[in-house]
Amino acid sequence: MDRRTFLKLTTVSLAGLSPLAKLELLHAKGISAEQLGTSAPAKGFVLPRSEAITISLSDLFKVGPGPSSSHTIAPLRIAADFLQALENLPTETIRPAQALEVRLYGSLSATGRGHHTDRAIIAGLLGEKPETCNTSLMDALGDTTKSYSATIQGKKFTIHHGMIVWDVVEHNLPFANTMVMRLLAADGSSLFEREYYSTGGGFFQWKGQPPAQRGKPLYQYNSMESFRRILTDHGKTLDEVMLANEMAIMGVDAATVMTRLDLIIATMENSVKQGLAEEGLIPAPFEFHRKAKLIYEKSLGEESASRFMKQLSSYALAVSEGNACGRLAVTAPTLGSAGTMPAVLHMMKHHLNMPQEALRSGLLAGGLVGFLCKTNASVAGAEVGCQGEIGVASAMAAAMLAHASGADIDTTEVAATMALEHHLGMSCDPVGGFVLIPCIERNAFGAVKAYNSYLIASTELTSQHWEDLDRVIAAMLQTGQALPAAFRETGAGGLGSSMVNC
Ligand code: SF4
């Protein structure tokens, strides 16, 4: 029996069954004990959660200020959304209003200070948008004693750090990262409020939000398996399906999609170059030095193998160090993991001399992997740990490199699968709640694993490869759900605990 047949036949959860019951179930499916052998793995495959993927590349690859997509970009977007909602309220609701209040729950409360959540909220209420955000203003907003003024429907409100309440970390709200924004009357009663959820990668939604008005994807898929079926049934390439869907979902033409891809590539490239040019300390309550520039410069005198590894690592470090300083970066899929894809992309452009068309194609493949992980598991460290950030970034980068190199869909899938698989179980344990330790170095390791995954996938016989992307994504979700809260971006476990308490 070949690998795919076995996996299809065992697409049921065997977890919790006795060995005898498992054999009986498999026998009922026509699989004998002899066919299984003695080492057949038990599969607990969780089926995809969504009907059809409707995320766009613009949603996944967002440009914004660091250091965190879930804790900086999303709160900035949320505050901007709330500001817009206030502008649309009836005048009689605004008239008695005296103040604004923001309550942070879960990981947002536990690690928000280190992630500049408070600065992002104030910036959003002052009218800033992620892509054009004034990073100097973000630096200035670090002064918690200063107050600002915002005018909403002609009425002035004071915007200051005191309006942000760092509420409970443990809670029963539906999402780990919850933020409640309120418009208050003079007696403190709420005139208008929204409960927002930061769902990872800079995405957010609010309680009771109507479904977004956007187009339907031309090709409907919710797993790698169904995506591959589209390629076969319609005789299409990965690029054709991804491009057609992006155009249908966003209601734009092909040229607009290409312009967007070029912006993403340019921002990633700029973040590598800017990071390699800077040195010194990263703003933090403890002394933390940049090292990307040093490692790159040292690599120039090295033999080829060491030079390659050091340069690839330095590119990832450069972006992540800039991200920690609040520079603009691209969520890929998050800002904590923003260094992994640009490092591989920079290598593709400057070492492998790939043309712009190949880089765009690579982004489409990376985007596909990001969509699948976001839809069927999560890309939020607060939900599934660092496997959902660096693990997914590494898988996206591996798919990008494979596809842009001209690999077939089997090799592209195996490269992504391997990169994700070998991050399974990785917890999110930022020291002090800052996107520094272990985050910055993890990006370098994510890039190295991505490259290695491509090298192995493009050399082995992929028909003999056991694991597939859908099942590894399911394993990531299951593993993430089993992680205690201390290991999901609360800074209370792992390095976040041992580095602080020792
Ligand atoms: S440990 Fe990983 S998931 Fe957690 S903040 Fe750092 S990069 Fe993100």
Structural account:
This protein is an alpha+beta fold. It folds into 3 domains: 3-36, no CATH class; 68-200, 60s Ribosomal Protein L30, Chain: A (2-Layer Sandwich), CATH 3.30.1330; 215-501, no CATH class. The chain has helices at 3-9, 19-28, 33-36, 57-60, 69-87, 91-94, 107-111, 117-125, 135-140, 224-234, 238-250, 254-277, 292-299, 304-324, 340-350, 356-376, 381-384, 390-404, 409-421, 439-457, 469-482, 495-501; strands spanning 63-65, 97-105, 147-152, 155-160, 164-166, 178-185, 190-200, 203-206, 328-330. The strands form 3 sheets. Strands 5-2-6-7-8 form a 5-stranded mixed β-sheet. Strands 1-9 form a two-stranded antiparallel ribbon. A two-stranded antiparallel ribbon has the order 3-4. Helix 15 (340-350) packs across helix 20 (439-457). The structure holds iron/sulfur cluster. Residues 336-337, 381, 386, 389-390, 428-430, 435, 438-439, 442, 489 line the site of iron/sulfur cluster.
Structural class: alpha+beta
Low-pLDDT regions: 10-44
Bound molecules: iron/sulfur cluster
Strand content: 5-15%
Order of strands, main sheet, comes to 5-2-6-7-8
Shape: globular
Radius of gyration, in angstroms, nearest whole number? 23 Å
Helical stretch tally: 22
What would you call the quaternary organization?
single chain
Helix content range = 40-55%
- Give the total of beta strands: 9
Largest sheet: 5 strands, mixed
Number of folding domains? 3
- Separation, N- and C-terminal Cα atoms: 53 Å
Structure at a glance:
By secondary structure, the protein is of the alpha+beta class. The chain has three domains: 3-36, no CATH class; 68-200, 2-Layer Sandwich (60s Ribosomal Protein L30, Chain: A), CATH 3.30.1330.90; 215-501, no CATH class. It has helices at 3-9, 19-28, 33-36, 57-60, 69-87, 91-94, 107-111, 117-125, 135-140, 224-234, 238-250, 254-277, 292-299, 304-324, 340-350, 356-376, 381-384, 390-404, 409-421, 439-457, 469-482, 495-501, and strands at residues 63-65, 97-105, 147-152, 155-160, 164-166, 178-185, 190-200, 203-206, 328-330.
